[in-house]
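Thread amino acids onto this structure.
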């Protein structure tokens, strides 16, 4: 059935493609955060273990919301490790870094998601896609706050 939501097919496809990059970055960050939750050690173990769990739980909900928005636009959401690895800008961590390095990597990951999400605003605005713009705004707010909280652990 034809989709008629007031956004032309070309723009819906471009927005969905951009959301696919946001989804891939978010999923890569989810995996990294979950990895760090499992593997963190040191004097801040309990604090970081709990904080990372809260963060990956939030990200798990977010990836579902982003994927469902892609589907609402009439596209299929990327949903494989290979697709995510092609689309993400977040570097995979294959080792077990020290706790402070974990925190720094997560700050960088949240900032990456923010920049990827921000890159879609012009297209959303020119396409009158307020729903995607609202989703991106909410995601950016979460990632900015999380990056700030993580960054504060590295200060002093």
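Threaded sequence (156 positions):
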């Amino acid at each position: 059935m034809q989709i008629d939501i007031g956004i032309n097919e070309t723009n819906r496809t471009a927005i969905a493609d951009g959301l696919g990059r946001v989804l891939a970055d978010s999923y890569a960050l989810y995996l990294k955060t979950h990895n760090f939750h499992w593997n963190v050690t040191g004097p801040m173990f309990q604090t970081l273990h709990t904080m990372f769990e809260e963060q990956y739980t939030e990200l798990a909900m977010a990836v579902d919301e982003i994927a469902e928005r892609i589907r609402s636009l009439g596209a299929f959401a990327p949903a494989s490790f290979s697709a995510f690895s092609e689309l993400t800008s977040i570097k995979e961590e294959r080792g077990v870094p020290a706790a402070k390095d974990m925190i720094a990597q997560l700050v960088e990951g949240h900032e990456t998601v923010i920049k990827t999400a921000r890159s879609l605003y012009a297209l959303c605005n020119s396409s009158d896609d307020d729903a995607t713009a609202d989703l991106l705004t909410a995601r950016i707010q979460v990632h900015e706050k999380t990056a700030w909280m993580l960054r504060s652990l590295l200060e002093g």
